[in-house]
Design goal:
Elements (H helix, E strand, L loop, with lengths): L4 H8 L2 H7 L5 H5 L13 H13 L1 H11 L7 E5 L5 H9 L4 E6 L1 H13 L6 E5 L13 E5 L7 H14 L5 E6 L9 H14 L7 H10 L6 E3 L8 E5 L1
Helix pairs in contact: 4-7, 5-6
Length: about 240
């Protein structure tokens, strides 16, 4: 995390300029190429290597918090959308040995996921689907869908499209679990709010939403029974469950 922040600091060198002109043209946008790419599905393995490795390296603590907040073992099949190299999926598989696993992400990322999930010993119960979740339908068959640190990278239109597709893909009585940084945390941590606001501005897309804003998007997509789940570090990660 510290190593990759040199790109963020470079964009912050002219903070006023960043605010006036908006982001998407600096070093951080280049680090996350899918954020501004016209064709994310076509990104090469080499271009996604750095950010994919970062997400995987920072995922264990996130996964532990999520799996403590919600027992995934009560489900039959889990689909992780935007699952990257499969770090969260591997942790979920370890926590629930009978859980069937699915991963949906860009082709260049799923190549790396197959390697990790093979090393983790869960590839035999994992189905990997390559695609762009903003332009292609979410695969069906899962009774639990997870979106871990995904929604805040996208605008409202893209989020609503993704949530609607996830709703259509869920098995009857299925659940959607969202976990990511959200604004207006309890005892509002202004440092975290400002950090994510500037980070996503520099990245060129997305924003950290309040739980109420995410709830409204969920209801618009057809979800009901929406509730927040407690996490250990709400200024970094909050969770919402919807059915």
């Amino acid at each position: 995390m510290i190593d990759h922040h040199r790109h963020f600091y470079a964009d912050l060198a002219d903070g006023v300029g960043l605010l006036r002109q908006g982001g998407g043209n600096g070093e951080l946008a280049a680090y996350w190429p899918y954020a501004t790419s016209a064709e994310p599905r076509g990104e090469t393995r080499e271009k996604v290597c750095a950010y994919s490795a970062l997400m995987a390296a920072s995922q264990p603590a996130v996964a532990a918090d999520i799996l403590r907040a919600y027992p995934v073992r009560r489900h039959r099949r889990l689909l992780d959308i935007g699952g990257g190299e499969g770090a969260f999926l591997a942790a979920a598989g370890a926590a629930a040995p009978k859980l069937e696993l699915m991963l949906f992400d860009l082709p260049s990322v799923t190549e790396r996921a197959r390697e990790r999930l093979t090393r983790e010993g869960v590839i035999n119960r994992t189905r990997i689907i390559a695609g762009d979740f903003l332009s292609e339908s979410v695969p069906g068959g899962a009774d639990l869908i997870t979106l871990v640190r995904v929604l805040h990278d996208h605008d409202d239109e893209g989020v609503l499209k993704l949530l609607t597709s996830a709703r259509a893909a869920l098995a009857p009585k299925g659940a959607l679990l969202i976990a990511e940084p959200m604004s207006a945390a309890p005892r509002t941590d202004r440092v975290a709010d400002v950090y994510f606001a500037f980070y996503l501005l520099a990245m060129g897309r997305g924003r950290a939403r309040t739980p109420a804003e995410i709830g409204a998007l969920l209801r618009a997509a057809g979800f009901t029974r929406i509730r927040s789940l407690p996490t250990r570090t709400p200024f970094l990660l909050r969770a919402i469950l919807a059915r």
